[in-house]
Write a structure and sequence with these properties.
Blueprint lengths: L1 H5 L5 E5 L2 H4 L12 H4 L8 H6 L1 H14 L7 H13 L3 E5 L5 H5 L4 E3 L2 E8 L5 E3 L17 E5 L12 H6 L3 E5 L11 H7 L4 E5 L11 E4 L2 H15 L4
Parallel strand pairs: 1-2, 1-7, 2-3, 7-8, 8-9
Antiparallel strand pairs: 4-5, 4-6
Helix pairs in contact: 6-10
This protein binds ligand BJW and zinc ion.
Length: about 240
């Protein structure tokens, strides 16, 4: 059983993807009806797209930022925050998601490796600024007057925390992947990195991911339905720190 396997006194690194927010009402990218079926990703999620059609790209992210005010964390987000409170420094949550549902559920040991919708960044000095309204062409950095852009990691850009916090979280840890298709690198490579160090790996997903064969354990189901039970059991099976 996954709880006994993931229990113990070691550290746990969790990777989440769009699937964990699906039950909150946010579209995933690659599922039927997902964002990349509705929009062409190369016209929206690349630096080249932003240079060629900045207004179109800003509009896409403005729509997604506005949608955040209509959704709420689900039982999966809440269960992860509860497990963090139990494991404290033995727990790290790495999310590919750009929504803010993990933090609204109470997660704090959280790394947004693909950025955050509720921040924007200066293209000139890289200052990161909280932003809840629509972002327009001509909205400029207070420090240097550079154009502001979404604080999002587009294809071809380097994700955040790869130099330090993510390798530290994965080193010697047990790894749990939740609601990600395993198709976007480098996140899709984390499971192999953990396995190469002898760590145990598990996934919770609606369907087996692209790298399903690298997981020692698999639980197929909706994150919001599966995680409360599974994570409660993992927390209970953990030895005290
Ligand atoms: C449920 C559920 C429910 C549904 N419960 N589950 C080989 C190695 C390295 C890089 C590459 C490589 N080959 C190609 C690359 C480049 C590229 C890449 O990976 N391309 C692939 C498409 C092949 N990667 C990059 O460009 C990255 N940067 C990079 O590599 O820099 C170079 C470098 C790296 C390291 C060191 C030095 C240099 C950047 C990637 C940026 C990704 N950006 C996006 C868009 C963000 C903006 C936005 O939000 O609009 O991030 S793409 C999109 O995909 C988004 C997501 O975070 C990411 C992952 O998607 P996710 O979360 O997995 O969602 P889905 O929809 O794919 O899957 C949902 C899953 O949930 C499914 O499995 C469902 O079954 C499941 N599900 N409901 C549980 N209720
Ligand atoms: Zn600036």
């Amino acid at each position: 059983m996954i709880a006994e396997a993931l229990g113990g006194s070691g550290r746990l690194a969790v990777l989440t993807g769009a699937g964990i927010s699906a039950e909150s009402g946010l579209k995933t990218f690659r599922d039927p009806g997902g964002l990349w079926q509705q929009y062409r990703l190369e016209e929206l999620a690349t630096p080249e797209a932003f240079r060629a059609h900045p207004e179109r790209v800003l509009e896409f992210y403005n729509m997604r930022r506005a949608k955040l005010s209509e959704v709420h964390p689900n039982a999966g987000h809440v269960a992860l925050a509860a497990l963090e409170r139990r494991l404290e420094e033995r727990f790290t949550l790495i999310t590919q998601n750009v929504d803010d549902l993990h933090e609204r559920a109470g997660s704090r040991r959280l790394l947004h490796m693909h950025g955050e919708l509720k921040n924007v960044r200066c293209v000139r000095c890289a200052a990161v600024v909280p932003w809840t309204a629509a972002l327009r062409l001509g909205d400029r950095c207070a420090a240097c007057q550079g154009q502001l852009r979404p604080h999002i990691v587009w294809f071809g850009e380097v994700p955040f925390f790869l130099d330090d916090a993510i390798p530290a979280a994965l080193a010697g840890a047990t790894f749990l992947s939740i609601g990600t298709s395993g198709t976007v690198y480098p996140a899709a490579g984390f499971v192999a990195a953990v396995k190469a160090q002898g760590g145990l790996t598990a996934e919770v997903n609606l369907e087996p991911s692209a790298n399903a064969e690298l997981f020692d354990l698999q639980v197929l189901g909706k994150a919001g339905e599966v995680l409360p039970t599974v994570l409660e059991a993992i927390g209970g099976a953990q030895a005290p720190a």
